[in-house]
Write a structure and sequence with these properties.
The structure is a homodimer. Chain A has 14 helices and 18 strands. Chain A is of the alpha/beta class. Chain A starts with a strand and ends with a strand. At the A-B interface, helix 2, helix 6, strand 12 and helix 12 of A face helix 2, helix 6, strand 12 and helix 12 of B. Chains A, B: This is Homoserine dehydrogenase.
């Protein structure tokens, strides 16, 4: 079984190291030894430290390496859309199995890969693309396929979880917590992909596709990042017995026309501290899955890092190796359900709204009237005199309202109308609430 | 694809119900419709309520049903060793794939089943045998097989977890908490299999076999139940920031001769409240897996109940169905590592020992001397004046000692020698401590 490895960065070098260290065990598990046919890198001659591999194996010619007759399996740990897509489509069409960690590519154009895999009758495995080391895609793809998954709620981005955990623990603002994350190596120099939710959205698309047997792409995912989460929001959450997490949520439901459909979104949300996801701290990932028969399930572990991601890649390599030796391939992508993706306005959510209001009779009635006009039912109202709210904003009174579940559009319209209300001085915080009801 | 279902109790009837409700989805996922060829029960004519199935399908002739030419897959949800073993061995040898939830049989004589599956070139799936709905065996068997698992620590018995959680929450004693569990339906009329750890030990054997690619049977598992856990133990744990759980632990290590080996055990233990397993309450199950590259992982969900277990059975049915349609079988049991199982005396653990002692000079020195003679290193000592310990035992002083990791035999010998010490009035509590160091 001969492998072409594309990329030799943090993950790629760990893959090479593990292939070397565990070669005897891997051979026993597969039934045949694994060999590295070549490693494609951008530049030769870079110091690869003490990587236990023949330097002759490095090449800058990825295309040539993939085409070689003696390559059975292509392992891609480069990332990005191109040239990765062309490489992998060519490999799959030529009947070579692919193991990839490339979430951006799978979310952007998973169809191209799945189609190429079907054309070439080759395997396409991508466990490492979501939640790093956590065995998650195989359970979704294979263990729960006798059940009906209704909802997936995940913390799938370690950088933002580190930042939000720090804000929760220390009361720091976003900028300060981001700075700490950068210093400690949890955030990249350009943190946009993480803090704006692009990374989580790609993973949400992959999870939703598997959970609901439907093709969902990155463009179908409603995405909000965490850059606007304030220390006051975190304090409000704490006052409610909640914490704020960047969640990816994929939920089954019915659209306005009554057809079954899915809603896929990434945004910060308050969740109760008693929820299993609330205690997922630091840069850890966890995914909470709800299924009709199985009930609630949670998968927890390291979502990033060279070794953790390499563990998932190695698991896929063994699976692909066994399949090839047996002359079979894994079940292909299952997209038979072909559900529509609901627009965000139709997603069912709850809102937590904190308002600075004038402390005079009739204010609550006016505010409640706005919610009623938009058919949004209020679950709880808490009215605090000025100065007792965490931030002590020095206004007349603070109204904290938590709603029942309603369509997101109705909630957004409610908040918009509240903005125009005379008695409302300002809207201090608006956050979605998940994990209750 | 035609199924013979053996057993129609809590799990079996849920399997039948799900097969009916989700028949279209299941057919799409497998690529062929599923049909029930027959359901073997002990007695006909029992009221099966509104089970959506032709009453003609019920039979008391399990052997005849299994032998029928039109049966492709045998689903066993009867439990127990015989006649289940004979049925399944015959089915597998005849090339029929088997899906079973029978942990007792797998732990007692898994080899017979695996060998029969190899003989008949048939599939043997048993996801439902451990931790009910939680997709756990497939990740161990297939996702992490590129990694090296070092330790599995699990809460795999819902009944005992319910009892210990109740003791922790209310301060109740074992008998009282067991009574509550029985009333609520969490404990059976004869709770022996649960509270004495037999159920957990069977699951420990299955987990250890998969994690370490080695055959481990129920007889290899050191087993202690929870019947001797007292309210005072729970209070001691709380005073240490810990909680008590019945843990199944399978750990890699080296034996006295320096050979790699495994230790597999089930016993109550204190774990820090900060450990992910500590917050697994009620009748939930969770399994914490540590692997070299992946790091720590946790799987959480419902460990029992008809629907949850049926979800796992259905997942296996789909996998088996797909394999048969593709004309392939899953990778067989992998037991290549063939590691020895260490005796309990060589297991590395930590002890928490609470002693009632005379309050006079030299007592601590004498006690510490006993630990030293057995080469057991003390991590912390806490000395409390009489009456301040939770139970207020009215003795002179209470010494609470927590050790570093040492062989279990050395710890047991230490406790034995402490018993004979003049200054030691009594040994109030001895508990293992896990999840630290």
């Amino acid at each position: 079984m001969r492998l072409a490895i594309l990329g030799c960065g943090t993950v790629g070098s760990e893959v090479v190291r593990l292939l070397h260290e565990q070669s005897a065990d891997l051979a026993a598990r597969i039934g045949a030894p694994l060999e590295i046919a070549g490693i494609a890198v951008r530049r030769l001659g870079r110091d690869r430290g003490d990587l236990p591999v023949d330097p002759e194996l490095f090449t800058t010619d990825a295309v040539g390496l993939i085409k070689r007759d003696d390559v059975d399996v292509v392992v891609e740990v480069v990332g990005g859309i191109e040239p990765a897509r062309s490489w992998l489509v060519d490999a799959l069409r030529a009947g070579k199995s692919v193991v990839t960690a490339n979430k951006a590519l799978l979310a952007e154009d998973g169809a191209a890969l799945h189609d190429a895999a079907a054309d070439g009758r080759a395997d396409l495995y991508y466990e490492a693309s979501v939640a790093g080391a956590i065995p998650l895609l195989r359970p979704l793809r294979e263990s729960l396929h006798g059940d009906r998954i209704t909802r997936v709620t995940g913390i799938v981005n370690g950088t933002t979880n580190f930042i939000l955990s720090a804000m929760d623990a220390t009361g720091a603002g976003f900028a300060e917590a981001l700075e700490e994350a950068t210093e400690l190596g949890y955030a990249e120099a350009d943190p946009t992909a993480d803090v704006e939710g692009f990374d989580a959205a790609a993973k949400a698309a992959i999870l939703a596709s598997l959970a609901f047997h439907t093709r969902v792409g990155a463009a179908d995912v409603h995405r909000e990042g965490i850059t606007e989460v304030t220390a006051a929001d975190v304090a409000s959450a704490q006052a409610m017995g909640c914490t704020i997490k960047l969640l990816c949520i994929a939920a089954r439901g019915v659209d306005a026309a009554g057809r079954e459909s899915v809603s896929v979104r990434v945004h910060p949300a308050m969740i109760p501290r008693s929820h299993p996801l609330a205690s997922v701290g630091d840069a850890y990932n966890a995914v909470f899955v709800e299924a009709d028969a199985a009930g609630p399930l949670m998968f927890y572990g390291r979502g990033a890092g060279g070794a953790a991601t390499a563990s998932a890649v190695l698991g896929d390599i063994v699976a692909v190796g066994r399949n090839r030796l047996a002359g079979v391939r894994a079940p292909s992508e299952s997209a038979y359900a072909d559900l529509a993706v609901r627009p965000m306005g139709e997603a069912l959510t709850r809102y937590h709204v904190s308002l600075d209001v004038a402390d005079k009779p009739g204010v609550l009635a006016a505010v409640a009237g706005v919610f009623a006009r938009h058919d949004v039912s209020i679950a709880t109202v808490r009215q605090a005199p000025a100065g007792t709210e965490p931030a002590g904003r020095g206004v007349d009174a603070v109204l904290v309202i938590v709603t029942h579940v309603a369509p997101d559009a109705a909630l957004a319209a409610t908040v918009e109308e509240l903005r125009g209300l005379d008695a409302v001085r300002s809207i201090a915080s608006v956050l979605r609430v998940e994990g209750g009801e």
